Amino acid sequence: MATSLKNLSDQNTTGIADMSGFKFGIVVSEWNEEVTEALYSGTLETLLQLGANRENIERVDVPGSFELGLGAQWLAKREDIDAVITLGCVIQGETRHFDFICDACANGIMNVGLKYDKPVIFGVLTTNTQKQALDRAGGRHGNKGDEAAATAVKMLSIKK
């Protein structure tokens, strides 16, 4: 569904399991820091609202969105981590670099989840402009971080 038709912060979280015993890893790209820090704030706040314990949330920073897959893999291979959330932002530039980074990022993150049989959530914005990214990082379209946290919780509830 297009973001223009749904606010990213509006999540149906009825019927979720108790999250207090689950441990979450959050991998945050340092590139486009204004956006990724807003995504992280939304993710953290939503996880706490949905019952996760603060001491069960671990953050790892990586240089850019391309590195999210490996950062996610390092967390996902740990037996004490139940779900991994990746947060990044890739903004269209003048070259095809955007296409390569977005494709590698999405495939890398998906493959980590399949390899380790645990939720690895794609909380990466792929926008045309900085304004579009900010609109989806707590702006007029909500926060993709909220959506990523709710998705992790829902997937853990399904698995449980």
Provide structural commentary:
This protein is of the alpha/beta class. Helices cover 42% and strands 21% of the residues. A 4-stranded parallel β-sheet has the order 2-1-3-4, with helices on both faces. It is globular. The two termini are 27 Å apart.
How many extended strands? Answer: 6
Overall mean pLDDT: 94
Percent range for β-strand residues = 15-25%
Give me the strand/helix succession. Answer: EHEHEHEHEEH
The figure for the number of domains is 1
CATH superfamily: Lumazine/riboflavin synthase
Q: What general form does the structure show? A: globular
- Briefly note the CATH topology name: Rossmann fold
Tally of individual helices:
5
Counting helices, strands and paired strands, the structural category is alpha/beta
Contiguous low-pLDDT stretches (5 residues minimum) are none
The level 1 CATH classification is Alpha Beta
Largest β-sheet summary? 4 strands, parallel
Spatial order of strands in the largest sheet? 2-1-3-4
How helix-rich are the residues, as a percent range?
40-55%
CATH architecture: 3-Layer(aba) Sandwich
Distance between the termini: 27 Å
Radius of gyration: 15 Å
Please give the structural blueprint.
Blueprint: E1 24-29, H1 33-49, E2 57-62, H2 68-76, E3 83-91, H3 97-116, E4 120-127, H4 130-135, E5 137-139, E6 142-143, H5 144-159
Parallel strand pairs: 1-2, 1-3, 3-4
Antiparallel strand pairs: 5-6
Helix pairs in contact: 1-5, 2-3
Keywords for this entry:
160 residues, alpha/beta, Rossmann fold, four-stranded parallel β-sheet, two-stranded antiparallel sheet, 5 helices, 21% strand
